[in-house]
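Lab notebook: predicted structure, single chain.

Context: the supervisor wants predicted structures on file for every construct in the current expression panel, including those that have not yet been purified. This is the next one on the list. No modifications to the sequence; it matches the entry in the shared construct table.
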Amino acid sequence: MTEICQMTATEMAAEVTARSLSPVEVVQAHLDRIDAVNPRLGAMVHVDQDAVLAAARSLADRVARAEASGPLLGVPFGIKDLDDVAGAPTSYGVPLLMGNIASKSSVVAERMLAAGGLYLGKTNSPELGYMGACRCHAFGATQNPWRHGFTPGGSSGGSAAAVAAGLCPVADGSDGAGSIRIPASLCGVVGYKPSFGRVPAELGFAQTLVHHGPLARSVADAALMFSVVEGAHASDPRSIPGCGIDPRIDLARDVRGLRVAFTRSLPGFSVQPDVANRANEAVAAFVEDLGCSVEPSAPPCGDLIETMWVLWQDFYGRFAPLIPPELAAGQVDDDLLELMSGGAALGAADLHRADAERQLMWSQLIDWFADFDLLVLPTLGCTAFPGDRDHPPQLEGLPLRDRILGWLMTYPFNLAAPCPVISVPCGLGDDGLPVGLSIVGRPWDDIGVLRAAMSFERARPWHDLKPPVAPGPGSVQAQRKGSRGGGSSS
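Prediction complete. Output recorded below exactly as produced.
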């Protein structure tokens, strides 16, 4: 059964479609893997085993009668615990909300189910997804599959860890300051932030930072999931039509002749020497193997931390009514309460100034991209750090703004929302932990970014690199229902 958990989503769907693999076999293999690994890993926080097995049996019957089809046929998937699945709990990482049962599914979950996918369970996230690590009061901490005791990154850390450890081949992530790409980089998987609006989001009409996108073990699987969930939906008036990607055709085309900019860092960030070295080695593939021209150049975005901090506080200030101060003790981090309080104290002038700075940055970036097709740079300046911290050690003692944002070389591309960005593994640091490479595209060029990532993956395959996660006891366990789960624990 272990071999099934090592298959890609693309392979699983093909074998289920061909009736050479049963959806029940696929689900059972992943449930066994969850039972063996998740108590130590803490990536999945709710699994209804009876429900997913019943869904797998129903699908198997329909496949046998040639009544079922879809690009994700029989593929188990995880959904981040900030997103709804009808009948399942959405806790947002807050103990007070653990009994909150969703009455309907999000657009992402709905589309994955309609494509033949099988909902496996919820993945861990910090409270309301506010930071780049992955622990919460409801379920505790998720471990990095590459090294126990280290963070997987966040906020989609449960999804990235689950995918890396073979608990599911694809999982949902959301990304407001890098929350798909941060854990993708630290866990050695693929994380894709599409152009803003390609995938509908239901986190409030006012925000323009948060994107939904896939986490997967390969670019082909990320593109497959993206092709299923993209496209406008009436529930999100900011959503835009899909790009119409066909992974079988669009990813097969080469990128020869593209103009690629490369930078080791962005203003305001530091990058470890070993991370810079892995990025240097990776970008050489664009010249030597892919036939691109590469030029050292950094986008003229400046140091944007204060601009982002104002918008981040404003976003979280809107959640304050969900967690009244008198009920906050033991429910959420003090840092999140400080973030919410800062948002409530902002004035109109603060927001207007941040919007003006964002517009200037965007105008400069559009002009800069006239000379390039892609930008390549390290996803983060560091590899994973110990999980008892929410930030790299060098930021200890600094103000909250710097501890949350000062190491996230990802958020400039949330400010530049229409620019798609993918993080792909590009090797291991000197500490043996994964390093991610970001490929940034021109506004709305999702196909171009995914094609470039696929070309890089073929030139520098990383699939043989698997984390040494092993079964064992631990302090974090999924809430489970069913004959093998028996109640819940956390």
